[in-house]
Specification:
Lysozyme; mainly alpha
């Protein structure tokens, strides 16, 4: 899959330019790939899905400092789709740089699933892994 420079720029802007140097295309590419796989597992690409309605491709329960207008149950409703993507990129960046209080970069995709979702954890992990072309035992820092 070819990563667009626009996507990389959005990731860099979402992170405030502090966590990533513009030359670190490897980390920004991993952030983008993992975020898109999570969005896929959450059902974002299905028309009318909760993640689409809520401008929340990762079905996040915390706004991570980005603009939001409320909650749909436990899920954040972001003000714009751009804010939802920026929050998901930020969450993944925290995972991959060991700055999350919940995730670490040495976790497998299945380990992440066990904390990211409370339902259908193996199916979620399989969806993320399949989208990335790896197994559920893949370490997230290596995808």
């Amino acid at each position: 899959m070819k990563i667009s420079w626009l996507v990389v720029a959005v990731v860099l802007l979402a992170l405030g330019g502090t966590a990533l140097a513009a030359s670190d295309s490897s980390l920004s590419s991993r952030i983008t790939r993992l975020a898109e796989a999570i969005a896929y597992a959450e059902g974002f690409y299905i028309d009318g899905s909760r993640p689409q309605r809520n401008n929340n491709p990762g079905d996040l329960t915390s706004p991570l400092g980005f603009s939001f207008i409320g909650h749909d149950g436990i899920y954040v409703i972001f003000s714009t789709l751009n804010d939802g993507w920026k929050a998901l990129y930020k969450q993944v960046e925290l995972m991959l740089t060991n700055r999350s209080g919940v995730y670490s970069n040495n976790m497998t995709i299945l380990d992440v699933a066990r904390r990211y979702t409370t339902t259908q954890q193996e199916e979620w992990a399989n969806n993320v892994a399949s989208r990335l072309g790896v197994t559920v035992d893949a370490i997230i820092s290596e995808v």
